[in-house]
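Hey, can you fold this one?
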Amino acid sequence: GLAAQVANGVLAEDPKKFGGLFILVVLPGTQGFYGFLAGFLGIMKLGLLGNPVAITLGQGLQMFGACLPVAFAGLLSAIWQGKVCASGCELVAKRPSESVKAVIYGAMVETYAVLGLLVTIFLQMGVKVG
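Sure. Predicted structure:
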């Protein structure tokens, strides 16, 4: 939301900068996809789309715990990535030719969300159900 607010301010002055701003606005939202993917993988593991698997309380807590890395990494990295991308929008406002550099900085913050997703996937794989 923060990046979109800054981008809209830039677009109010120069609508031609939309292309350079679009990726900066979309980038912080990718963490939602990582959370969705982790949730979907958990649903598949538990058989909730077909034949549900009976699990113990301990297994349920393990699955819950396995999802925490992507939740926390996604939350924190999205906040900071939004701030980085908002600053990138300000860069594009002054120097549109430098938009790729702003995207690279935003993508660097993305690394932590991806690591959180990977840890969640590995932990989910370790939970024995069924």
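The CA atoms of residues 56 and 98 lie 54 Å apart. Let me know if you want another pass with a different chain boundary.
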